[in-house]
Amino acid sequence: MGLKKILADKETWVGLGLIFGISLVFGLVSHPGLIKRFLAGEFQHAFILKEDFPQVVFISLPEAEAAWAEQKAVFIDSRNLEEYQRGHIPGAISVPLEDLKSGREDLLLRIPDAPEIIIYCEGGDCQASLNLARWLESRGFKNLRIFSGGWAEWTQNGLPVEANVAE
Amino acid sequence: MLQNKNVLLIFRLIVGGVFIWAGVSKIADPLSFAQDVRNYQLVGPALSFLTAIFLPWVELIAGLWLIVGIYPKSSALLISSLLLFFIVLVLITMARGLDVDCGCFGTFSRQADWRLIAEDSLWLALSLALLFSPANDFCLLRKKSSKA
């Protein structure tokens, strides 16, 4: 039975239509609460429920810059070590998410006590800062901030950078 | 293609089982899966959310129908296409140097890497064997004309 014959068979398409249709209906009726919240504009930054991650808050560049200038927060760079060494926000501590995921939990010991922990990654579409924040929240860290503009927004605005500093 | 109906039945149980497991493990927690989709950095939040609501059910129903034999060609075609898509997706992700969880089986997911491609290729081979085999015994709904 060739692919052409299968594709030419009307029954193939009826079956596909049924699978998609039933899935759509089940998908919509199985999570009405989430769909309502999504339509109300939630989950634009991240797919987390505020009530599940109360310690995670998203901040913009002015907020990140102010916290940096006032030195009231510790900055965490969640990108990999090479990217960090090429350049990072001055004073930021390197905690690469990918190293953490491969078992380097000792990296968490680098994070000092601070009123706020501001996490960033490359910027744009990067998800490392969010995933690191989820990780940290599950380990009991508090007052986590995600600077979603990240490294890209920081450098585009000509803010100070630091480079070639060992971990 | 394969004619041995017992072998084909085992293939159906394996591939269908994998897809049922893939669907069920994600249906319970769509937000986690939406984040997994988002981590691939190919689609925005809206499409990631819709994928997370929709795709696990597609996997579950296609897997179920493949096993019990409801529109077996449709489910085999759909599963084969999905597997091919997943393989290409993981290849693209690796080429871009992204380190992501595959999102395949909810909390049981692991890294999207070569091992995952090998695994998906195996399921794809079984699924294609089912797609192109004339025999479709043990089916709830089948076309008499397509029987071997």
Primary descriptors:
heterodimer, A: 167 residues, alpha/beta, Oxidized Rhodanese, domain 1, B: 148 residues, mainly alpha
Task: Please give a quick description of this structure.
The complex is a heterodimer of chains A (167) and B (148). With 167 residues, chain A is an alpha/beta fold.
Tell me what the structure shows:
With about 170 residues, chain A is an alpha/beta fold. Chain A folds into two domains: about 5-30; about 55-155, 3-Layer(aba) Sandwich (Oxidized Rhodanese, domain 1). Chain A has helices at about 5-10, 10-30, 30-40, 60-70, 80-85, 95-100, 130-140, 150-155; strands at about 55-60, 75, 95, 115-120, 145. In chain A, helix 5 (about 80-85) links the parallel strand 2 (about 75) and strand 3. The radius of gyration of chain A is 22 Å and the shape is elongated. The termini of chain A are far apart. Chain B has about 150 residues and is an all-alpha fold. The interface between A and B is large, with 40 and 38 residues.
Number of discrete domains of chain B: 1
Count the E strands of chain A: 5
- Shape category of chain B: globular
In total, the number of domains of chain A comes to: 2
Report the major sheet of chain B.
Answer: none
CA-based gyration radius of chain A:
22 Å
Strand content of chain B: under 5%
Amino-to-carboxy terminus distance of chain B: 11 Å
Helix percent of chain B reads: 55-70%
Overall mean confidence score, pLDDT of chain A? 90
Q: What does the average pLDDT of chain B come to?
A: 87
Low-confidence stretches of chain A: none
Would you identify the CATH architecture of the largest domain in chain A? 3-Layer(aba) Sandwich
Measured by residues with Cβ under 8 Å of the partner chain's Cβ, the largest interface is: A-B, 40 and 38 residues
**Please, what is the CATH homologous superfamily of the largest domain in chain A?**
Rhodanese-like domain
Major sheet strand order of chain A: 1-5-4-2-3
SSE string of chain B, helix = H, strand = E? Answer: HHHHH
